[in-house]
Design brief:
heterotrimer, A alpha/beta (304), B alpha+beta (349), C alpha/beta (252), A: 304 residues, alpha/beta, Elongation Factor Tu (Ef-tu), domain 3, Rossmann fold, 2 domains, seven-stranded mixed β-sheet, 17% helix, 27% strand, C: 252 residues, five-stranded parallel β-sheet, 10 helices, 33% helix
């Protein structure tokens, strides 16, 4: 007699969550983890020769509602056929209309994105990663220190403190760039200072003939402001070399290491703690980070 | 778990029936190496005769049946000025015969990341759920060290596990389909005699391990030895060829690439299993490489394997099969590297 | 791509052969399932093997073969002047290839051996890059059509071209092959640029290194291993020099 031992098909597609739009904020839930939200590029602002600010609008209304994030988180931006890249969110958490991403032209995906016209469709997954502890910072002074492209991820907390300005004491933005032509969001400095009462200081390493501001390294800006180390939180974003110098200085000034936050940059391929490309020490930048306090960074091997 | 005993001839009939009704994958001899020893691989079989139940160990692990070396994650279809994304991960059920305890434990480790991790992977889960696994115990090879990693026995992650007790197999039945299937065959409830033979067999296997790797307090120890000159010594030998990661049962790091089809009408987003020893593993946009040196990349692999990540509760992911050590042309193997580190540490203290 | 507002470019392409077997050109005309799509990505203005057109208005010139005669140098330089982008395709164009075996002997001796009483004007074999600037090199003996397709699609869709940064071993292991060293053979896989999909080693033939070294080869360790496995210095040298793709290696 023939024994029929045919195994039944276990269809993962039938799991209830596979049918609904993915909610990346709901972890540990089975979903179409590679499904992207389709977005339209509704505006492109040229910032510098290499950086552009993209305004993306999620097309589907339900997905637009689902997409909520916190300052410091990032998204995986998909340009179909070219690639998917991690980009930190640069917009206000209260902006539910469109998402702002500041993107440098630096590889296969971003190069072609810079050529894309308004109206083109791209994909988005996320938001991923942890965020800056904005609530914990309430009632304190806030130091936002950025170098180069580091101003892009800092725009999230900057919008946050501006929108809840009375909950924070003094807010300083210290921004350093290589050259004046590489400075980002220059058109907003005035607004930040005048409207949001944020002390905005900038410095460049190599000035051009039109530059009449400060010249030097970013750490020099720290000499210009008064810092109350006990009641100050700092967020530092920039290239890895900058972290060391700035955080060491802040440490000397007396800001506790667990009140200094940095946002690490790695090349994630999945954003979901799988591909291991963004591993730092024993943590993943995409799931456990990208925001780490400086104490954790010092304890993570190869972090900076 | 329900225990039964099945004679080897009846077990064969069970296999034949499984093969008749399903895609079945089992160990077969594929090559003979330079020392005239057989080399085994897992591949699809069409008759129980092809399966070598008494095989030593497969050259490559079975992870590729769950995490294929290359896999399409999604497909984009382009229309005039728009595109559509389709995702497909449904698979047909299949049977995997003859997995060793370490192989099943490796799948359990992958489960932690792809099944129970922060973002469960439907691709992996679909394959895992649709695979009927028959495990098989074996006498360890001289260089196996899975007992050191505590992965020489397995208690979950399979449908049936067979222990060889002479003329019969002592079966641990772990799923209801497996129990239903076996109802159709002559299986008996274990007698006292069977239980005794089973315990003897377990004892015998435990005693047969010839290689021991001391892994106690390895996590903190790897931290202390982070800047040890030992890494340079082993790094200099490393060919950066990625072989270790390819044959490893738990290495799962990957890379994602997208390619547009020649007709420009479609594009696919593909994942490819990668290796942390490959040059551009930690390269970021703009070309900065966080691990430009060979020794840093090799160290990272050991770090991942023996220290573990937050994502999998900081547990080592090595199962002790020593496939990497066997496949490595440069003879970089966990036992020697870890012993070297320990020696270095002792000398320094 | 059109959805980004970027119309596909249809480059004018010329394919030219020098000292070679024309096998790479044959590869370009191979793989029938996608051949029509492949050819419609470009406008072929000069390609002796598939067309009688002899246009000079190409933007991309694909060069097959090594350079071994004075008139070839002249012709190559003219092509370089006309082309915006010059691509060396195949091992001969990239490294000199099999033809380079000729360089082991005095040129007169070689000439006599081949042409006897009717000697021809001939030079030492050199890769294309020795005479003109090469913008892109696609190695392989022959080239891998799938890789060429990918590169052409990248050019047409304005995507950055990427080559693997790992050796043949990765692709070989992904085919679940047994290491050829384990079978007692010699193989250049551990130091050779991937992208060939490990065709030779999957057929149990040791890699001959036609694609040249990958980005981070560890020659020193590799030679030590090979010697330990019983392969002599001379044998390793012989294998390395087969395609002249490892000329950077001075000693083993």
């Amino acid at each position: 007699m023939k024994n029929d031992l045919k195994l039944p098909v276990q269809d993962v597609n039938l799991e209830p969550f596979m049918a609904t739009p993915p909610q990346y904020t709901r972890k540990k839930v089975l979903m179409k983890t590679d499904k992207v939200y389709k977005c339209k590029i509704i505006n492109v602002i040229d910032l510098t020769e290499y950086e552009k600010l993209f305004h993306l609008k999620i097309l589907d209304r339900v997905e637009r509602k689902i997409f909520q994030f916190r300052p410091g988180q990032f998204v995986m931006l998909e340009v179909p056929g070219y690639g998917e890249v991690p980009i930190s969110l640069s917009s206000s958490t209260n902006n539910h209309e469109y998402i702002e991403l500041c993107i440098r032209k630096t590889g296969r995906t971003t190069n072609v994105l810079h050529e894309a016209s308004v109206g083109a469709y791209v994909g988005l997954r996320g938001p991923f990663g942890n965020s800056f502890p904005m609530e914990k910072m309430q009632g304190n002074n806030v130091l936002l220190i950025a170098g180069g492209l580091g101003l892009a991820p800092l725009r999230g907390p900057l919008y946050w403190v501006s929108e809840y300005r009375d909950l924070y004491k003094d807010v300083h933005v210290l921004y350093g760039a290589k050259e004046p032509s590489q400075m980002l969001f220059t058109y907003q400095y005035n607004e930040w200072e005048k409207v949001n009462h944020i002390n905005m200081l900038s410095i460049v390493e190599n000035p051009d003939e039109n530059w009449n501001g400060r010249v030097g390294m970013i750490t020099e800006l720290l000499d210009e402001i008064e810092i109350d180390p006990i009641n100050t939180y700092a967020i530092v974003c920039g290239p890895p070399v900058m972290f060391k110098f700035v955080c060491n200085r802040l440490d000397k000034i007396g800001i506790p290491m667990n009140k200094m936050f940095v946002s690490l940059e790695r090349r994630m391929h999945c954003g979901m703690g799988k591909c291991c490309r963004c591993m730092v020490g024993s943590t993943f930048t995409c799931v456990d980070g990208p925001v780490f306090d400086y104490w954790s960074v010092l304890n993570l091997k190869e972090a900076i | 778990m329900i225990y039964r005993v099945i004679s080897k001839s009846e077990f064969r009939k069970f296999l034949e029936s499984l093969i008749e009704s399903n895609v079945t994958i089992g160990p077969v001899q594929s090559d003979v190496d330079r020392n005239n020893d057989p080399i085994y691989k897992f591949q699809q079989v069409h008759s129980a005769d092809e399966i070598e139940l008494d095989y030593t160990i497969s050259y490559t692990a079975v992870k590729n049946f769950f995490l294929p070396y290359r896999e399409k994650l999604s497909e984009y279809t382009f229309t005039d000025d728009d595109w559509d994304q389709t995702i497909e991960y449904r698979v047909h059920p299949r049977v995997l015969v003859g997995l060793r305890p370490c192989d099943i434990n490796a799948l359990n480790i992958l489960d932690r990341i792809f099944y129970k991790g922060t973002y469960p992977s439907p691709y992996y889960i679909s394959r895992r759920k649709n695979t009927f696994i028959i495990g098989l115990d074996h006498e360890p090879l001289p260089d196996c060290f899975c007992s050191s990693m505590n992965h020489h026995t397995v208690t979950e992650g399979f449908d049936v596990f067979c222990s060889d007790i002479g003329d019969s197999y002592y079966l641990a039945i772990n799923s209801s389909p497996a129990f239903d299937f076996l109802k159709k065959f002559q299986v008996t409830v274990p007698t006292d005699e069977d239980d005794k033979s089973y315990i003897e067999r377990r004892k015998f296997i435990k005693k047969s391990f010839k290689t021991n790797v001391e892994i106690g307090s390895l996590p903190s120890f790897l931290d202390i030895e982070f800047d040890s000159p030992i890494w340079k010594k082993w790094g200099d030998k490393c060919l950066n060829c990625g072989t270790c990661a390819m044959v490893c049962p738990t290495c799962y790091c990957y890379q994602v690439e997208e390619n547009i089809a020649v007709n420009l009408k479609k594009a696919s987003k593909d994942m490819m299993l990668y290796s942390c020893t490959i040059l551009d593993f930690a390269e970021v946009a703009g070309g900065h490489n966080f691990r430009p040196k060979k020794e840093d990349r090799l160290k990272y692999r050991y770090y991942h394997h023996y220290r573990g990540f937050e994502e999998n509760a900081k547990e080592p992911i090595c199962v002790g099969c020593n496939r990497c050590g066997r496949a490595c042309l440069a003879d970089i193997n966990p036992k020697d590297v870890i012993n070297d580190l320990r020696l270095d540490n002792e000398e320094r203290s | 791509m059109k959805y980004l507002g970027l119309g596909p470019q249809k480059p004018k392409v010329g394919v030219f052969d020098f000292t070679c077997c024309e096998g790479c050109e044959l590869q370009l005309a191979n793989k029938e399932t996608t051949l029509v799509d492949f050819l419609s990505l470009m406008e072929i203005v000069n390609f002796r093997e598939i067309s009688s057109d002899k246009g000079d208005d190409y933007e991309i010139a694909l060069i097959e073969g090594s350079i071994s005669r004075a008139d070839e140098i002249e012709r190559l330089k003219k092509i370089r002047e006309r082309a915006k982008v010059l691509v060396a395709i195949g091992t001969c164009a990239c490294f000199g290839g099999i033809n380079s075996l000729k360089n082991r002997y005095p040129i007169d001796e070689v000439n006599r051996e081949v042409y006897g009483e009717m000697p021809k004007e001939t030079l030492e074999v050199k890769p294309v890059k020795e005479y003109v600037q090469v913008d892109l090199a696609i190695p392989g003996c022959p080239i891998n059509k799938a890789e060429v397709e990918r590169i052409i699609v990248d050019v047409v869709t304005k995507a950055e071209i990427k080559f693997p940064k790992y050796p043949v071993c990765v692709e070989c292991k992904q085919h679940i092959n047994t290491c050829l060293f384990d079978l007692g053979q010699f193989c250049l896989g551990p130091v050779t640029q991937a992208g060939c999909d490990a065709v030779c080693t999957s057929g149990k033939m040791g890699c001959l290194g036609c694609r040249g070294p990958f980005e981070a080869p560890n020659f020193e360790a590799f030679f030590d291993i090979a010697k330990e496995k019983g392969f002599s210095k001379d044998y390793i040298k012989e294998r390395l020099s087969f395609f002249n793709a490892f000329s950077e290696v001075k000693d083993v």
